[in-house]
Design a protein that fits this description.
The protein is an alpha/beta fold and 128 residues long. It has one domain (2-127): Resolvase, N-terminal catalytic domain (Rossmann fold), CATH 3.40.50.1390. Helix content is 52%, strand content 16%. The protein has four helices and five strands; from the N terminus they run E-H-E-H-E-H-E-E-H. The protein has a five-stranded mixed sheet with strand order 2-1-3-4-5, sandwiched between helices. Strand 3, helix 3 and strand 4 form a beta-alpha-beta unit. The longest helix is centred in the last third of the chain and has 33 residues, at 95-127. 25% of the residues are buried.
Amino acid sequence: MRLGYAKGNTLSIDQRGQAEMVREMSLDKLYVDRADEKLALKQLVAYSRRGDTVVVIDIRDFSNSAGGFFDILADFAKQGVNIYCSAQGIDTATFEWAAIMKVLRIYGEEKSAVEKDARWNVFNQFQK
């Protein structure tokens, strides 16, 4: 599936603006957040599946920082989801980006394991 994501500061939130984006980018579904909300982005991450492509106009719609952007890329990489950012020409389905996504997937899995171990250690401390 081709899933779109937009923020209010990039795209007119009215119905006409959403319909144009869906038509022009051949999207199956569009998720829209207003201002600094992240609810639609969280829903998009939860809904997307291996092989899907998430389309965004600008990488800054995902996050205002490089670290935040790469965290989101890692989340999608763990799921096998491709990202296409039209303004910057980023397409994670290309060979170059596939290597980057593989590295992000590896580090994302390690991060999850470390966080799980940290939660377990805190839990064990309270059990004593």
